[in-house]
Each structure stands twice: as C-alpha cells, then as structure tokens.
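=== RUN LOG ===
request id: a7f3
mode: sequence -> structure
chains: 1
length: 114
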Amino acid sequence: MKTGITSHVLDITTGKPAVGMKVELYQIKSQEKALLSSGITNSDGRVDESLLHKVITGEFELLFYVEEYYKSTNNSENIFFTTIPIRFYTQESETHYHIPLLLSRWGYQTYRGS
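=== RESULT ===
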C-alpha cells in the first residue's frame, strides 16, 4: 500500500501522460512556503517517488511547472499557464494522498485520487 503524498499528470490535449514535468511539494505554515521535495514525471506521467513519505497534519501545496513542460515538448505556442499551484490539507490519520492533475492548454482539473 502506498503512503505519503503522490501525484501524476495527464495531458488531456494529447490524451497521454505529461512526461518530464517538474513538480514541487511545499509545506505551508503561517502563509510561508517551505520546499520539502521535488520530482519529474516519468513516462507514465507519475512522479516515481512519494513527494512526502509519511503524512503529517498540515497545509501543503503542489506546484506544477506547466510552461516548462510545454516548452520541452516543442509545443510552446499559446501558453496560458506558467505554473499551477494546488493547495490542500492533510490529516495524520490518513496514510496516503494522491493528487492528480488533468491538464489542457486552457484549463485543468484535479481531485483526491486513490
């Protein structure tokens, strides 16, 4: 069973995983951000390692580097988003939080996955 905080990105414009996107995890305390970890999405659009191995109670932010991703795919026309931040709360009583990003050029969707 997975534990911690994990993520993956699907580019629904192409219908494929978003390969090579940088993702950072921050902890938020008193409106201050502290970088905890970062990763790059693999060929399946997933960050290989948990971004946080053990869940602690608190507020977090995942930051997805969308502009860099589109530029790396040689598809940098009409870039709208530069980065996408997703803030969420965790509880120690939960052992796993999976936060996916479904991405298109002009919008995105997220949810708590499994």
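=== NOTES ===
The chain has one domain: 4-110.
The helical segments are 66-72.
=== END ===
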